[in-house]
Write a structure and sequence with these properties.
Layout (H helix, E strand, L loop, with lengths): L5 H19 L6 H8 L3 H7 L3 H24 L4 H18 L2 H6 L2 H5 L2 H27 L8 H21 L6 H16 L2
Length: about 190
């Protein structure tokens, strides 16, 4: 069997961590369980990551990668409504392909136990808020959005996304998130844009 690279091993460790948290919750995530699943010793895990917090930072790094990809996609569109549509739908499409990531987003205990992880997640949220803010500011300049404070509109959009994803999780992923997302986008466009 060929030896895998450090980067490939780190990806495998992160993937298995997501699976553990998704299947059993954050409290079940231990280096012992992770080493069994990955098929390497506990000390070998520590050669790749300092501790559990460092592994979760690796998971959050995937959200940062997602944000870069999201930003590139949004920039492809000209109209603010198209950009918001892309922003929202991109979230739903990504999470539908990666349902385990919802377990990270909704595992508040992860972020309550670590200032580093909480700050990282807040940074991710703030980046997304800035993307939406720029879209709404553009729409306001063109008089294409209702006259409500930008911060409140951002909260509405992010809240819609979070609620739909939570409903999807709580239903056992029983519906197509991307299809539901299209309805959500349509509703948001009707409510917020002129």
């Amino acid at each position: 069997m060929a030896r895998i690279s450090t980067e490939e091993r780190q990806v495998l460790i992160i993937d298995e961590t997501i699976k553990i948290i998704h299947e059993q919750g954050y409290q079940a995530f231990s280096i012992r369980e992770l080493s069994k699943r990955v098929g390497i010793s506990e000390p070998a895990i520590y050669r790749h990551f300092l501790n559990k917090e460092d592994i979760v930072l690796g998971i959050l790094g995937r959200f940062s990668e997602f944000d870069l990809s999201l930003f590139k996609e949004v920039k492809k569109f000209e109209k603010p409504t198209e950009k918001i549509h892309c922003f929202i739908q991109y979230h739903f499409d990504f999470l539908e392909k990666n349902p385990g990531m919802t377990s990270i987003v909704f595992a508040e205990e992860i972020f309550n136990q670590s200032d580093i992880l909480r700050e990282k997640m807040l940074t991710i949220i703030e980046k997304r808020r800035r993307i939406i803010r720029s879209i709404i500011d553009e729409a306001k300049q063109n008089k294409k959005v209702i006259d409500i404070e930008t911060g409140e509109l951002i909260t509405l959009i992010l809240g819609f996304i979070r609620l739909v994803v939570l409903e999807w999780r709580m239903s056992g992923f029983s519906f197509q998130l991307s299809q539901r997302g299209k309805k959500t986008v349509g509703t948001i466009e009707k409510l917020l844009f002129k």
